[in-house]
Amino acid sequence: PTVREMMEAVVSTQSTGGDICNNCSAPYDALLNLFKSLQLDGYACADLADSMNSTAQTWSVRYQCGHPEVQYFPIISLTVGMLLLPIVFYGSNKVLSKLV
Q: Model confidence over 7-20: pLDDT tens digits?
């Protein structure tokens, strides 16, 4: 896989009106894995890194692919629960101490 092949897949998907994130994720992932293996082996030159950075930015910013959806409900509920824990503890402690 090359950057050119990746961009050709994107252009082809755009012209047919397809979903870029779904249709082009396999070529993008293959290209990204190739780049990572080249980096580990020490074969990634500055031009290759620049080209891959440009491709990754286009993939994530322009097409908004690869961003997992953020789930706020678990974070907010855990935060509220932790904030209420001292209130429940001291409130129940006060009520129980009056019963004794």
A: 788 888 888 888 88
